[in-house]
Design goal:
This protein is α+β, with helices and mostly antiparallel strands and 357 residues long. The chain contains 5 helices and 21 strands. The strands form 4 sheets. The protein has a 12-stranded antiparallel beta sheet.
């Protein structure tokens, strides 16, 4: 027996965690618009990711994480006037999006002067007391570099030397701008140096379209969202697979979702292709000798192009204790995650469901 809810909510929790990390990169400061680029590099100078940053005069912030070829793969928008957070996953053809609850009481909006004063108070405090405990059991020693002027910004520098609870050492040097962002950060940990650098800072009003949901994300005909029935075609050779995945599909009606003017649409298994809105085909696959598993392809009737494809690779020899039926249900979990993250609304943790394996 296993709770399906743990696997289903993993992508949701991951995106929330990512969102909180992204949000910390730009402060909500009014009347201080800008656009900028961020580069993440290793100590060898290799750029492994980039981001596009922007903030509007009303304090709204925009962060787009980009792949090596330059296209956005994740966009995080904090929409101040509407008191909402918008998360966009830009991986065509499945553009997915959702709203996340904004902080209680709304976003905190600051000014450049006020934020600059806070940074100065922070530095003064650490000059007076450079050594402090670092929960949950470590210590940190800070060396304050003071301030400097650069590109019309006041920068506040420091070096933090962390001693973790297990005795490991980590160091970080950074320069914070009164514009409300970290313009440079160098982190050394486990013998690896990573550098985050902000470049191309322009004190201009960004294009308002950055803070809107792009047209490719807006509601359109999406058979995965509209489907109410599914037909399971089992090509794995294991009869137990069909029963296991049908049980998981039918359990969707027990899941809950709190949505804005929407309710969760249930899906149930039908015993004939003719009655099905979707056809889920399960096959055994072997991407490599060490990566066997089960693949699920989801089609609409009379179409040869799958709407959704996923592969679960938990089969022997990686874990000989897991059956094919258990592995196949992970594919259904992945489909649930795809549909849940495409819905506009706040997503509750589904009730704990259990299936045999």
């Amino acid at each position: 027996m296993r709770p399906i809810s743990v696997l289903v909510t993993a992508p949701i929790l991951l995106s929330l965690s990512l969102g909180s990390q992204l949000a910390a990169q730009i402060m909500h400061i009014a009347n201080a618009p800008f656009t900028a680029t961020v580069k993440y590099t290793t100590d060898g100078g290799l750029t492994y990711s980039t981001e596009q940053l922007a903030r509007a005069s009303n304090g709204s912030t925009y962060i787009a994480s980009k792949a090596k070829d330059g296209h956005p793969v994740w966009i995080h928008i904090e929409d101040v006037p509407n008191n909402r957070i918008i998360e966009l996953s830009a991986q065509p053809p499945s553009y997915t999006y959702r709203f996340v609850e904004a902080p209680k009481g709304g976003f905190w909006i600051d000014s450049i002067d006020s934020y600059r004063e806070r940074l100065q108070r922070f530095q003064d405090s650490w000059v007076q007391n450079p050594d402090r405990d670092e929960p949950p059991g470590g210590r940190v020693h800070r060396i304050i570099f003071g301030t400097k002027q650069e590109n019309g910004m006041t920068l506040f520098g420091e070096r933090a030397e962390f001693t973790l609870e297990n005795g490991e050492k980590r160091t970080e040097e950074k320069w914070e701008s009164d514009l409300g962002l970290t313009v440079s950060r160098i982190t050394d940990w486990h013998g690896e140096t990573r550098v985050r650098t902000v470049t191309d800072v322009e004190r201009v009003e960004p294009n308002p379209i950055l803070f809107e949901i792009p047209k490719e994300y807006l509601p359109h005909n999406d058979p995965l969202l509209e489907a109410k029935t599914v037909f399971v075609e089992n090509r794995t050779g294991d009869a137990k697979v069909k029963a296991a995945v049908e049980r998981v599909f039918n359990n969707w009606k027990h899941m809950t979702i709190t949505a804005m003017n929407n309710s969760w649409k249930q899906i149930s298994v039908t015993d004939t292709r003719e009655k099905a809105d979707l056809i889920a085909v399960f096959t055994k696959t072997t991407k490599t000798d060490l990566d066997p598993g089960i693949e699920m392809r989801v089609y609409v009737p009379n179409s040869g192009e799958p709407l959704f494809t996923t592969h679960s690779n938990l089969a022997p020899p990686i874990n000989p204790n897991l059956s094919d039926s258990y592995i196949a249900t992970n594919c259904v979990d992945a489909l649930w995650g795809r549909i849940a993250n495409t819905r506009i609304g706040l997503i509750d943790t589904p009730r704990s469901l259990a299936t045999d394996h």
